[in-house]
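Tutorial sheet, problem 5. The two components below are modelled jointly, 740 residues in total.
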Amino acid sequence: MLMPHLPSTVYLSAPDLVQLVRRKGLPACIAGVAERIEADFRRWGEFDKSARVASHSSDGVIELMPIADAAQFAFKYVNGHPKNTRHGLPTVMAFGVLADVDTGTPRLLSELTLTTAIRTAAMSAVAARRLARPGSTRMALIGNGAQSEFQALAFRDLVGVRELRLFDTDRAASAKLAANLAGLGFKLTICGSAAEAAQGVDIISTVTADKANATIVTPEMVRPGMHINGVGGDCPGKTELHPAVLADAAVFVEYEPQTRVEGDIQQMPADFGVTELWQVLAGHHPGRTHAEQVTVFDSVGFALEDYSALCFVRDAAAELGLGQVIELMPRVADPKNLFAALAPSAEAAEQDAGLGVADALDQAHAFQHA
Amino acid sequence: MLMPHLPSTVYLSAPDLVQLVRRKGLPACIAGVAERIEADFRRWGEFDKSARVASHSSDGVIELMPIADAAQFAFKYVNGHPKNTRHGLPTVMAFGVLADVDTGTPRLLSELTLTTAIRTAAMSAVAARRLARPGSTRMALIGNGAQSEFQALAFRDLVGVRELRLFDTDRAASAKLAANLAGLGFKLTICGSAAEAAQGVDIISTVTADKANATIVTPEMVRPGMHINGVGGDCPGKTELHPAVLADAAVFVEYEPQTRVEGDIQQMPADFGVTELWQVLAGHHPGRTHAEQVTVFDSVGFALEDYSALCFVRDAAAELGLGQVIELMPRVADPKNLFAALAPSAEAAEQDAGLGVADALDQAHAFQHA
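Model answer (structure tokens):
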């Protein structure tokens, strides 16, 4: 029996996402997600936004990040556990869902660990493209863990960075980063300190993992005209920038209510002035106003970026024929008769299992536009 | 390469859950979930609780319901769209996750549409077992949709109900319910109104779906000593009980901060007195205090019930060998080197795909208790 709207969900596993990135190319994925982020931030007012819901423990945090527009609801599950790498697990792991607002049907369940690395870098570069001085080519990259290569590529392709000065308290991480970036068009220097890495650069990117009130960027390191891309200060008690650096800069954030609690500005008074980045992207705010200004993007990661990334991977997977249809939701002949699906003799729930990915995505598309 | 803790996730589809219920039996599942709920509510103080996060639209609501204790984080995704049945979709669809608090690894991804029907009924019966008069055997069941059979069985097995008086504005729904319950030990009467259904009963259960400030139970229907199990008033603007019914009763709730917003008590002043049910289950509050008292369980559904249900299905699936291991998270040789998993030549992400469900559950168990 064919239902008008089967509750079919397409599942993209981590191996599916690896295939997706290999086939499209990582630079194309970063650029594609950046384009989505920019377009979605420009229609900021259409989204039902809230700060993410965080569950903190001694070792880390688990967060749920929901957002919706009139057509789609999205959320991400994501953790942050700095000690995970000691156990062979990534610090940050994630997955997410896109659902239809009008029926609540989940349409896509996707890995987002790899995708989060891509969208975080894309977000940083989208911000820097507006906030760094034109012609910025030299960047300090402080924190050379799982996120660092993605930042490097995003800044190469979207901002024009060609020279990277690397620093990490774990020198092996810097060596890994340098090896991964060999032959990708960068001049690379491994530095002995954050201050050394910051010498002569246009941009400082901090992507560190430790859950601590760290002071990685101090006022002495900052020169007029620099842009600071602060990614790793993203949790209460987890900061990277000295308060004086913030005090002397024009500070831009994703979603102010969330960043007040989680960002580096958690160190500042509640009335410390910041600008939401969408204002710049939508043309309501000029962004950087003069060449000597120091700009800070106090990035914590906002649900809208994951919405954008989920839409990108959904469409790319459909184009490449990746993913599989899963029966996360029961298919019932009569939705008021859930009980019948469980009765020993019932077979209704086992019918209609033959729907393909393309059918499901077509149906999702058709339904969306019905 | 074997990682100390592979981020393996066991996936239970809706068809898996159907098999689980068929093999264990629905009554055993309801009883098993009820036992878990009662045990978990007794250790209420160990949980990090918050009201669910709701995204409302004109047609319904999509909610995320997180909760955690020291070892496990759980959340449920659930929608409520009363018009879905017109499209052949269930009003309520859900799935959920259990994750390790110490690393953030999701260990179980499970359908929760069918499971929610079970846990909601189990919760109602756990409450009624303490709040209804001893010896209650007659129940009005108002709203004969997808949840109604589950309520009937839970009250039969856990409370001792043997006579049901059915009412629904859709008479076909009552006929469906009566047909499903035939031969299951009930005396059944289909009634022409809610008031008729309430005549002579010990318990009134309301499980209606319409998103409206309805007045299904009015003061004239209530007799001394009745217990009212109000399940369908669970959303702002969605109520079932006349305020005067609440005013004259002892009202019990799951989690007060959530119920103030979503429950039938949204109609009452903010200082209207209620008791959280865990107080009764843990022996801190007597519950019903005399035979003439009218008691109300203003149930909206709380994340802890889903935590309990997820633990039940996880253990039952392990016992029955149901489910499959999915690669929702990438397996990387070096967690600081996510980039390598995406490089065209890398094979690391494709290794270690042969782990079985039993191994993964064993590992999850071992890790939990390490």
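Marking note: Residues 228 and 296 of chain B are 5 Å apart (CA to CA). Full credit if you identified this.
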